[in-house]
Specification:
The chain has 4 helices and no strands. By secondary structure, it is mainly α.
Length: about 140
């Protein structure tokens, strides 16, 4: 297996692992720890999800670079799947994360926040993104 393929696969699986560990475990488990109040948990979550988002963009950039450098061995489905994952990440970065961050800050400040489907939408997109990344990784093999 070529080095660039290995780098792509490593980045994809690290991306999947980071997303699953943070979005599907850390996000809710931190609230079970003794002494972690809602404002503290939300503050931690804001920091962690900001870091995760930057890490995801790093992985996406490395994958793009490897795909461009190894363009001749890339099939048609691979860029389409990857674009799907990046599209989902873009929606999360540009639309959902800023709104969720603002809502968390309102909670931290003690303000009342109306119910919203944004969190469920974010989780749904995380599931879709992980699925698309899994399909992308399979297509690389």
């Amino acid at each position: 297996m070529e080095l660039l393929h290995f780098v792509i696969i490593a980045c994809v699986y690290l991306w999947i692992g980071f997303t699953c560990a943070i979005s599907f475990m850390e996000a809710w488990i931190k609230f079970k720890a003794p002494g972690v109040t809602l404002p503290i948990g939300l503050g931690i979550g804001r920091l962690v999800f900001n870091a995760l988002n930057k890490t995801e963009w790093f992985f996406a950039c490395v994958i793009v670079l490897c795909m461009v450098m190894n363009f001749s061995s890339i099939t048609l489905i691979q860029p389409l799947l990857f674009i799907g994952a990046v599209f989902i990440l873009s929606i999360q970065t540009l639309v959902l994360l800023p709104s969720l961050d603002a809502r968390a800050q309102m909670h931290i400040n003690g303000q009342t926040v109306a119910a919203s489907p944004m969190h469920i939408n974010f989780v749904g997109l995380e599931v879709c993104k992980v699925g698309v990344l899994c399909l992308f990784s399979i297509s690389i093999f």
